[in-house]
Design goal:
The chain is an all-alpha fold. α1 packs across α2 and α5 packs antiparallel against α9.
């Protein structure tokens, strides 16, 4: 059977997969283009045929991460479940990543820290923050601008930071407990 994937898209996919893994594990600034190309098994020209620059590759990586976060959040969320269970599921996914030692921090936060003046990177990070806020608002059955939603976002951010710095899933689960208390029906 003949492949329907063109060589250019195949090279693009391999470059993006390689960059995603390397940026996630090593960081953006510590990952050179030559390493991405070598790990992807493509010619350097393929990189520039698919991405105008390393910055464009970083933006594509972040957009891919955002898409993955959305898919993952939707897959683990049951809108018919109580808010406490829904928020617990979100935090538990983070705790499991910490326990599996696959968590290297929030890719959006990491990118903004590494590339603070890069407007396209910040734009994707801002979209991620908006998506998280809206998702947490739905979980808490609140308006996205509500105090409860703001507190949920802060707890989620704190859990991510605790996971990156402390590498302790118990800290993530403690933040989950606090988030669950925020969305309990008696509190609203």
């Amino acid at each position: 059977m003949e492949s329907t994937t063109s060589p250019a898209s195949s090279a693009r996919d391999r470059l993006l997969a390689s960059a995603s893994r390397l940026f996630h594990e090593r960081g953006i600034n510590a990952t050179g283009i030559d390493l991405v190309v070598r790990e992807a098994g493509v010619a350097k020209a393929s990189l520039y045929n698919n991405f105008a620059s390393k910055e464009a590759l970083v933006v594509a990586y972040l957009e891919h991460e955002l898409d993955g976060w959305i898919v993952g959040a939707r897959a683990q969320d049951d809108p018919l479940s109580p808010s406490t269970e829904r928020v617990a599921a979100l935090f538990e996914a983070l705790a499991r990543a910490v326990e599996s030692r696959t968590f290297h921090g929030c890719p959006f936060t990491n990118a903004v820290i590494e590339l603070p003046d890069c407007v396209p990177v910040r734009a994707v990070a801002d979209r991620y923050r908006d998506v998280v806020r809206v998702h947490l608002a739905h979980i808490g059955r609140q308006d996205a601008a509500s105090t409860t939603t703001t507190r949920l976002v802060l707890l989620y951010d704190a859990a991510i930071t605790a996971a990156k710095v402390g590498r302790d899933a118990a800290l993530v689960r403690e933040a989950s407990t606090m988030a669950q208390e925020l969305v309990q029906p008696a509190r609203r």
